[in-house]
Design brief:
The chain is of the alpha+beta class and 300 residues long. It is built from 13 helices and six strands.
Length: 300
């Protein structure tokens, strides 16, 4: 439509403006949301030619366009801007054209570089939830949009069944799972619980036990007891504690959060989980067997 308006103004410049005009003087911009209109023509460039106010220039051009372009339903000149309203028939025709055009707006397939889109890559230490569905919908949509824009798209995901988060569940199950009368720890079969639910349960238990241990560490730090901790950790904690002076409640909460993270990393439980991860990476038979067993629960 902008092209059609431009051609009409250039072709009728002599009768409308009394002289020829340069195409560069025909400028469009997005219509403001607080005014009615679909297209906005800037009328300031025509004020000098027509020797009138911006509003008068807009009204003259608007009258000409509405008479000569049937798709223009109405217009309004506001200061130096002519807001044009297009007819419903125009929009229906545009939508009809879109509907009839297969692959409307698509670029040539594989005309752009290959892109890999990874989603949703779930962790196996807890059940799938609505967040994973959201990630799936978003990942698939992004991949399809990139494909429509001409990219060759490779969709992939990583099943996160390894790493420190998995070791947390493994360690918690070893440490805190109750023993039955035969000395066996609980399993999906013995509890009637889904495998991913059971593994997720021990991930939560690990976090609870670690936080309890971290709470004791933080209390000892505030009492000035730093025995057994690395010098760099001690210096960082002392610096954070001192920085709380004269801070507001929000700032203090942020500092306390940093201290808590430091304390969690100093817990024996976290250190043992890290040690288990090192053993897993080294294919320690016992650790690897536990990992395989708990993975089988998740995938069952």
């Amino acid at each position: 439509m902008e092209l059609k308006i431009t051609k009409a103004l250039l072709a009728n410049a002599e009768s409308l403006f009394g002289t020829t005009i340069d195409e560069s003087s025909i400028q469009f911009q997005k219509t403001r949301k607080d005014v009615e209109g679909d297209i906005t023509l800037v009328t300031f460039p025509f004020v000098k030619i027509l020797r009138c106010s911006p509003v008068d220039a807009g009204n003259k051009i608007g009258a000409f366009l509405s008479e000569n372009i049937e798709e223009i339903a109405s217009y309004e000149a506001i200061n130096g801007f002519l807001n044009l309203v297009l007819t419903d028939d125009y929009w229906l025709e545009q939508l009809s054209g879109v509907a009839k055009t297969e692959k409307f707006g698509y670029s040539e397939p594989n005309s752009k570089p290959t892109v890999m889109v990874e989603y949703s890559s779930p962790n196996t230490n807890k059940p799938l939830h609505l967040g994973h569905l959201r990630n799936n919908f978003l990942g698939y949509s992004v991949a399809e949009i990139l494909k429509a824009n001409g990219h060759k798209v490779v969709k992939t995901q990583i099943i996160n069944d390894r790493g420190i988060h998995i070791c947390k569940s493994m360690l918690a199950w070893e440490r805190f799972s109750p023993l039955d009368e035969n000395g066996k720890r609980e399993t999906p079969e013995s509890t009637g619980m889904k495998g991913d639910k059971l593994v997720g349960k021990y991930y939560v238990i690990f976090d609870q036990e670690m936080n309890a241990e971290a709470k004791e560490i933080i209390a000892s730090w505030h009492e000035g007891n730093f025995d057994g901790f690395d010098t760099d950790v001690v210096e960082e904690v002392k610096k954070l504690i001192a920085s709380k002076a004269d801070k507001d409640e929000k700032a203090i909460a942020g500092i306390d959060g940093k201290i808590k993270e430091l304390a969690k990393n100093q817990t024996s439980l976290m250190n043992d989980a890290k040690e288990m991860l090192v053993k897993w990476e080294g294919r320690d038979p016992q650790v690897y067997l536990l990992w395989t067993t708990m993975n089988s629960w998740v995938y069952a």
